[in-house]
Amino acid sequence: MKRWIKCVVLGLVLPVTCLPAAGTSASFLGIRQAGNAKQVIITGRAMCLEPSGRQVPDEVDCSIESVKFSFHSNDGHNYSFVPDDALTAMFTDHRVRQRELQVTAWQHQNGQLELVAVRSIKGGKLYDIYYYCDICNITAYAPGPCPCCRRELEFKEAPAQEFRADESNGGRLDERRR
Fold first, then answer.
1. Does residue 30 contact residue 172 with C-beta atoms inside 8 Å?
2. Contacts (Cβ under 8 Å, ≥6 apart) of 16
3. Where are the domains of the chain?
4. Among 130, 137, 146, CA closest to 28
5. Model pLDDT for residues 77-119, shown as the tens digit of each residue
6. In angstroms, how far is CA 117 from the centroid of its own chain?
7. What is the pLDDT of residues 4-24, one digit of tens each?
8. Model pTM greater than 0.90?
9. 151 in Cβ contact with 133 (< 8 Å)
10. Count of CB atoms within 10 A of residue 79's CB?
């Protein structure tokens, strides 16, 4: 059920609102995570791992059906992701895995991460990563064909926007440029 809700939210709401700088996922949409998960921000690199545990080279795209994803932080820790995290599909793209990344995620008690936002770091600045169809004006957070016209989505990076939940406005998100 949880995966289905994420797919509906990502597949229908975000493309319609066309927020290219949106961090993504549940936290961005104001949905609170249940349980004892804590939100963390980690910098490092994403990796695709074959079932044997061997790393897929960063210059090669990997298949979401045949790999697991891992995140190697700059401080030397390796993290895995919850199995149904739809946002890890972004890591199939070799261009994403070749970049230094900042991930915001829910870290569950078992140590696994559930992504909230994935941003690249270039020149000390944060950039939102997304895929875009200029014909249909659709934004997605995984590579592949446009859900409307079926043309391949274009990889994009844009200076990150900051989204803040403000208690004075009922917890709604407030978009502010950095």
1. yes
2. none
3. 2-177
4. 130
5. 999 999 899 999 999 999 999 999 999 999 999 999 999 999 9
6. 5
7. 434 333 443 343 333 333 444
8. no
9. yes
10. 19
